[in-house]
Every structure is written in C-alpha cells, then in structure tokens.
User: Fold this.
Amino acid sequence: MPKKIRELKQMLSQAGFTEIPGKGSHTNWVHCLYAGKITISGKDGADAKRYQEKEVKRAIEEVEGKKQDE
Assistant:
C-alpha cells in the first residue's frame, strides 16, 4: 500500500529537512547536508507515487550517512 503525501512530508521533517513552499500543490524540501532539493507534489491525502517514495528514502539515507561520517 503506497504511503500518503503527508507521510512523506512528515518523514522529511523528522529527518531535519526544511519546507520551502512551491507553486500549487508542490513543496520543496532542502537540507544542509543534501545537495539539491526534493520536490513533493500532490495533496496531503493523496497516495504518493513510487518514485516519490524512493526519492525521499534515498535522500534521508544520504543525510543520515553524512551525519554518521561527521
């Protein structure tokens, strides 16, 4: 069962990402240890696409890996 958009946003927030409002239903997420940004589109109650889940998971793993290296 796919995660909801609100769950992805919550995961990013807990990992220390900061939300930057975007246009329409888009939100951008940035982190000082992550190169680039993650864009999440869709309403909070909508099912997340598979690529969105993978992108969020990969970004959180990258940030956690860099935290451990410090």
Remarks:
- The chain has a mean pLDDT of 95.
- Helices lie at 5-14, 50-69.
- The beta strands are 18-21, 26-31, 34-41.
